[in-house]
Amino acid sequence: MSGVQDSLEIKFRLIDGSDIGPTSFPAAASVASLKENILSQWPKEKNNAPRTVKDLKIISGGKILENNKTVGDCRSPLYDVPGGVTTMHVVVSQPPQEKEMKLKSDPKQQKCVCVIL
């Protein structure tokens, strides 16, 4: 395939609208390595920081990218502009135990109902 770029300029859009990057990544870089890069560059002042790669989801072209895929595998001809910057969205998901803890600590969930017939 001639014309395929060896690298891609990517910026990561966080949920609050701020960005990380743009940074150049080789086409052979894995999605997991993109997530590691996001973790290392995560703004310290943000309170919803992910703790591990598993806490992150990267979305590009409307698809959630799998860790074992490469940047080259995830390219979409519709969104890949030669010499341009590709924007990928980053979503932080809470680990299941934190979600359960929040539900347990919710006072609405602590109510006891008793019905006498």
TrEMBL record:
GO cellular component: plasma membrane
Keyword entries, A-Z: Cell membrane, Lipoprotein, Membrane, Methylation, Palmitate, Prenylation
Superkingdom of the organism of origin: Eukaryota
Residues of the Ubiquitin-like domain: 8-74
One Pfam family cited in the UniProt record for this chain: Rad60-SLD_2
Keyword Cell membrane: yes
Gene3D superfamilies per record: Phosphatidylinositol 3-kinase Catalytic Subunit, Chain A, domain 1
UniProt KW Membrane keyword: yes
Membrane topology: Lipid-anchor
Subcellular location: Cell membrane
Signal peptide: none
PANTHER family registered for this protein in UniProt: UBIQUITIN-LIKE PROTEIN 3 HCG-1 PROTEIN (PTHR13169), UBIQUITIN-RELATED DOMAIN-CONTAINING PROTEIN-RELATED (PTHR13169:SF27)
Role, per record: May serve as docking site to facilitate the association of other proteins to the plasma membrane.
Name of the protein described by the UniProt record: Membrane-anchored ubiquitin-fold protein
